[in-house]
Amino acid sequence: MAETSTATKRYAVVTGANKGIGLEICRQLTSHGIVVVLTARDEEKGLEAVQKMKDSGISDNLVVFHQLDVADPDSIASLVEFVKTKFGKLDILVNNAAITGAVLKS
Ligand SMILES: NC(=O)c1ccc[n+]([C@@H]2O[C@H](COP(=O)([O-])OP(=O)(O)OC[C@H]3O[C@@H](n4cnc5c(N)ncnc54)[C@H](OP(=O)(O)O)[C@@H]3O)[C@@H](O)[C@H]2O)c1
Predict the structure, then answer these.
(1) Is the CB of 16 under 6 A from ligand 1?
(2) What residues does each domain of the chain span?
(3) Average pLDDT of the chain, as a whole number
(4) What is the pLDDT of residue 1?
(5) Could you give the 3-state DSSP secondary structure of residue 63?
(6) What is the largest CA-CA distance in the chain?
(7) How far apart are the first and last CA of the chain?
(8) CA dihedral sign of residues 27, 66, 45, 97
(9) Fold of 2-94
(10) Tell me: the pLDDT tens digits for 38-54?
(11) pLDDT at residue 54 in the model
(12) What angle do CA 38, 75, 60 make, to 5 degrees?
């Protein structure tokens, strides 16, 4: 039944996931049957990463792209709306994006 499977499914968002550790975290999560929102600040890079995952055999149902720049409030609001509307909940947030928030001056 669709309702039951939606209720028991787990959903994750990974930030900065178009490459490196973030992309690998996406792979690992999907290998556990978790639905992953692969996010990237650059849409083209993010879509390429999703395609790479699909090409490696990961099911279409387990990975979806959404743009997210963690330093842009409008972008964050858009992702929140997307998750609320599409899944109604979020189980896991992996804030991997390489941004410290600190500005270092020499
Ligand atoms: N690799 C290590 O040995 C190591 C060790 C300790 C901690 N870490 C931490 O682990 C995390 C991932 O490391 P990594 O080696 O995989 O880094 P990476 O290959 O440099 O990847 C960083 C990711 O963060 C994204 N990003 C940067 N600023 C962003 C923003 N404002 N909004 C959204 N995404 C943003 C990058 O997007 P673009 O491609 O668009 O730049 C990229 O996808 C980082 O937080 C890093 O500090 C890594």
Answers:
(1) yes
(2) 2-94
(3) 92
(4) 42
(5) strand
(6) 60
(7) 60
(8) negative
(9) Rossmann fold (3.40.50)
(10) 999 999 999 999 999 99
(11) 97
(12) 25
Structure tokens that stand for 8 in this block? 């028991």
The answer, yes or no, to whether any atom of ligand 1 lies below 6 A from the CB of 72, is no
Task: Kindly give the distance from the C-alpha atom of residue 96 to the centroid of ligand 1, in angstroms, as a whole number.
Answer: 6
Rounded Cα distance between 52 and 58, Å, is 9
The values of phi and psi at residue 40, to 5°, are -155, 150
Q: Contact 44/70 with Cβ under 8 angstroms?
A: no
User: Token pair for residue 1?
Assistant: 């039944």
- Which H helix or E strand runs over 37? strand 35-40
**Rounded CA separation 67/32 (Å):** 23
To test ligand 1's pocket by mutation, which of 96, 103, 104 has the most ligand atoms within 8 angstroms of CB? 96
- Verify whether ligand 1 is closer than 6 Å to residue 19 (CB atom): yes
Q: Which one-letter amino acid corresponds to residue 84?
A: K
